[in-house]
Amino acid sequence: MNYRKFRLQRFWGHLFSGPFIWLPLLGLLLLDLMVSLYQAICFPVYGIEKVKRSAYILVRDRNKLAYLDPLEKLGCMYCGYANGFLLYAKEIAGQTEKYWCGIMHAAKPGFKVQANQIEQDFARFGDEADCKKKYGA
Description:
Blueprint: H1 3-22, H2 24-46, H3 70-101, H4 115-119, H5 128-135
């Protein structure tokens, strides 16, 4: 396939898929507001240290790359925001899970163990003594 034909096919594919890529941004922004409000209000009540947003979301670094055109820079900013926000929200959810129910899930074939459960030393599933030791339950 020649380069021009490849670029044309790529253009039409991007034009078609664009709305499906950009539409979730509205939901992410709303969820970002809700998650941030939740953390700001509830974490102090629970005595949980707040998750530092800037440690997860870095939107304005790739836009400094001179070899990207403006549309590519915008796409990079979106990806940086979306992936960073999802990691930020995952950490807040993990801290919440640790506070309310710090027990690992049962092992199941094909189930992905959540890294935060291991890192935060959740009680082992089905181990009552471990749960009582860690959480006084």
